[in-house]
Amino acid sequence: MPEYQECFNYTPFSFGVSRYVHNKMDKRELITRVQEGEKEAFKYLVAPYQKKIYYLLYIILGDREDAMDITQEALIKAYQNIKRFRMASSFYTWIYRIAVNLAFDHLRKMRRNPKTEETNNLTGEEGSDCSLMRKELTEQIRRAMAQLSPQHRAIILLRDVEGLSYEEISKVMDCRLGTVMSRLHYARDAVRHKLEPYLKGED
What we know:
The chain is an all-alpha fold. It is built from nine helices and no strands.
């Protein structure tokens, strides 16, 4: 087994409490420990981001298995390149960019569009006690998001769900600030347009 893969012998999304958490070790110290070769520290460094990366990739790719595979690939690539990371940068922006680049590489290789029937929605799972109206609205949001391009879905998620700044999104998506703003405007407008008939019907 390659040395770097030893860090990934765990069930996805199932990190336990450890001395790293108990000691409230800050991110900079965790990064330093990983850069110095302490493999276990990497698991706790990426723990806050793993689900978010998976969700972002699911939105982009529209496929659960692909999203899981690319999440794992992104974590491995981040570990392999951690010594290149500079503390002056934002770690989550850095690792998100790795994940997004891998996702778009995957789409180019597959030469296909994301599976719209698998595309997630931004509202999470519906509970059994949710009203019919809420379920219908959730379905409308899912359909509206599914019709956006992977780039537009990623930007609206990074901004409206993850709360990243325009500058941070620009770094993650590797595009100009103006492009981020125009794509976000287009994505929001497209979703709003798709929801308009449904929302008007509720008045």
